[in-house]
Structures are given as structure tokens and as C-alpha cells.
Amino acid sequence: MLMTMVVIYTLFVLISIYVSVMQIGYINIAKRKKAVLLSDTKFLIAGNYAVAKEKLSIVNSFVDYLMFVAWIGFGISYLQSSLFFENEAIMNIAIVMGFLVVNSIISLPFSYYEKFVLDEAFKFNKSTKAQWIKDTLISFVMTLVLGSLVVWGIYSIIISFTLWWLWSFIFIFVVVILINMLYPAFRAMFFDKLTPLEDEELDDEIKRLMDRTGFVSSGVFVSDASKRDARLNAYFGGFGKAKRVVLFDTLIEKLTTKELLAVLGHELGHFAHGDIYKNIALVGAMLFAMFAIFGNLPESLYLELGISKSPYLMMILLLLFMPVLGFIMMPIMGIVSRHNEYEADKMGSELGGPSGAIELANALKKLVTENKSFPLSHPLYIFFHYTHPPVLERLKELGVDVGEADKTALEGTCEAEI
């Protein structure tokens, strides 16, 4: 059984890397051909940025695989032998959190490189090293505190119920919902400064838009995201009356009022169609599958690992294989999500009135330009990674003539250089 799990994880890594290599080869050819949506210079820069990110992803995959082999081979048993607490609950929490802390430390160089080398080179990063250290420490402390509480909850369920995996799934599903509800508040408390939207005219326009779809929120807020990053974004967070509309200050700066309303109309389309609940249901299905599988592993696996069956071991195995099941589920979630995006685009354009489609299309073009998003991708990469339809397809659905992209990149060979 252990060898089967290693083979499955190995296949997952190899397929992930293969998809990334195909994407790199495709972009390296496409970026030298006729530019789409962007100027020739920006098209090339966006291609270089996409390739650089994918190369980093490949290195990350290699390291993750080495860590997986290390944890399975000796890491878990070493962690168990290195920690000792008389209280069994504390012992289980310490081992699982030790596992998470080690993985977090290993990921730090990648986080630093992405922020201060990659994003710096492409003029995205606005954060200082002091800010990054502060954010990292806050995230680390939050992970320790909240993670320990979640681990304690699952441990208590495992030792109390025969069908522990089912009750653990319910517990984690509730935690996921609570995170979605509390995310805006936590982000405002520890990371971003949120201030009420000062532009009264824009605020009134947004509230009229929300009234038309029955969206009730606790207010429209502006995030000072520009102190960390130059990308454009916005999000709706929370549930019920605690919902917030949060606009990045970078978004307000770059989009016109009509374009901004078109983007918000798109997000309100998700609300009107219940997409938030559909996405939560999909996440719930994935979590259920994970707990069902790892709650019924054969005893022989634990014998092969040389470690007695224990709550901490079951939790670590689940955490190790979470990316595998996520990768398998992603194409299904992607198909559903891409369909939802088309429907949200349709509603966003309708809410914008006669010029709604044009304004949304203009906003999408600006998002591509400002976020240096390369508008073309290999079909295999789209299948495994895209939660949104390719921007060219979205623009076509909105009735915008974007011309035909040069598809000969698919006929070329992979070129790994930038």
C-alpha cells in the first residue's frame, strides 16, 4: 500500500511538471509571434513573466517531492521520536504542527524569491523586506494558534468516534465556511487597512447596483493593497449581513467608474447565481472524498511506515496527499467555475446597461495589461489550472472582436529559455 501511495504521488508530480513544461514551451514560442491584446513590448514582458513563474513552480514541485519522500522515509518517525509530551492531545498537536512548521520554513525561500526577485523584476512588488517579515510572522503565529485548535478538534473527534472521518469532514467543512465569513475581518485586522469608500458618487452607484441584485453588505471599503503589490483586484467577502465589498486602491486608480461598475456587476452575477455556495459545495465534495479515503486506509500501511496508527499520523498523511486530490479535482472544478464566469460576465454586462459589455471588456483588457497576464495558454494548462475562461474567449462572448490568435505555437517544440 505504501508503494502504491508513493507511485500515485510520483505520477502527480510528473504530470504537474509535464503540464508546466508544455506551458513554458508554448509561451516561449507564442510570445515571439503576433501580439494579442497587448502591445508588442508588453506582450513579450507578460510572456517572460508567465515563463518565469512556471519555472519557479517546477522547482517548487521538485522540492515538494523531495519533502514528501523525506517525510514518508524518515521525517514522520523522526518528528515522533524528537518530541515528547505526557499529555497525548498536546503530543499529537505538537507533531502535526511541527510538520506544518517545517514545511513553512522550507517554503520561505520560494516566497522571498517570488516577492523580491521575480515580482521586483517585473515591477509588481511594492512591499519592503520589513513589511514582508512582519506579514510572514503574523501568518506564522496565526497558523500556530488556529492550526493547533483545528488539530485539537480533529484529534478529539478521532479518539471519540468510530466514524471519525465523517465527523472530521463535517468539522473541517464548518471551519472552511467560518474562514470565508471571517476572512475580510482578519485581513483588515492584521494585513490591509480598510477604509470606507470616500467617493460618494461611486459609493451610491455601487449601492444602487447591489440593490438591483438584492445584495446586502456591511459597506464598500477600499484596501491599501498598493503598499504591497501593483496588481488590480477586488473581492466580496463574508456571508449574510457581514458581507463586504472590498476594492483594491490600485483598481480604483486604473479603472473608470463605468468599468469598475462592470467588474462589480460581474461579481454580483456570482452572488445572484449562487456561485459562492456552488464553490463551497465543490470544496465540500473534495474534502468528503479526502476524509473518506484517508479514514479507511488499511492497517498494512501503518505497518509499512513502521509507525503505530495514531491521530497525528492520519492527519499528516491527509495533509501530504491533499495536493494530489486537489489536482485531480481541479479539472472538474475548473469546468464548473469557467461556466460560472461566463454567466457572471453576461449578468455584469446586462447590469451595466447598453454599454455594459463594452465597459466590462475594457476592464478585462486593463486587468490583462496591468497584471501582465499573458493572454494565451496551452490547452492542457487551461484544463488543469484555469478557474476562469481564457480572456480572449470571454471577450468574444461579450461580442468584442479580438482577432485570431496565432495557434502555430502548439506545433512548435518546447523552448525553456526566457
N- to C-terminal distance: 42 Å
The number of helical segments is 14
Strand order of the largest sheet: 1-2-4-3
How confident is the prediction overall: mean pLDDT? 87
What's the order of the H and E elements? HHHHHEHEEEHHHHHHHH
Give Rg in angstroms: 23 Å
- Structural class comes to mainly alpha
Global morphology:
globular
Number of strands: 4
Low-confidence stretches: 412-418
Number of domains: 1
Note the beta-strand portion: under 5%
Helix content: over 70%
User: Could you give a short account of the major beta sheet?
Assistant: 4 strands, mixed
Provide structural commentary.
- The protein has 418 residues and is mostly helical.
- A 4-stranded mixed sheet has the order 1-2-4-3.
- The protein has one domain (2-411).
- The protein has helices spanning 2-30, 40-82, 88-121, 129-158, 164-190, 200-213, 249-254, 257-272, 275-294, 299-305, 311-351, 356-370, 379-385, 391-397, and strands spanning 194-196, 220-223, 234-237, 244-248.
Labels describing this entry:
418 residues; mainly alpha; 4-stranded mixed beta sheet; 14 helices; 4 strands; 71% helix; disordered C terminus
Summarize this entry quickly.
The protein is mainly alpha-helical. It is built from 14 helices and four strands.
Indicate the topology.
Blueprint: H1 2-30, H2 40-82, H3 88-121, H4 129-158, H5 164-190, E1 194-196, H6 200-213, E2 220-223, E3 234-237, E4 244-248, H7 249-254, H8 257-272, H9 275-294, H10 299-305, H11 311-351, H12 356-370, H13 379-385, H14 391-397
Parallel strand pairs: 2-4
Antiparallel strand pairs: 1-2, 3-4
Helix pairs in contact: 1-2, 2-3, 3-4, 3-11, 4-5, 5-9, 6-8, 8-11, 8-12, 9-11, 11-12
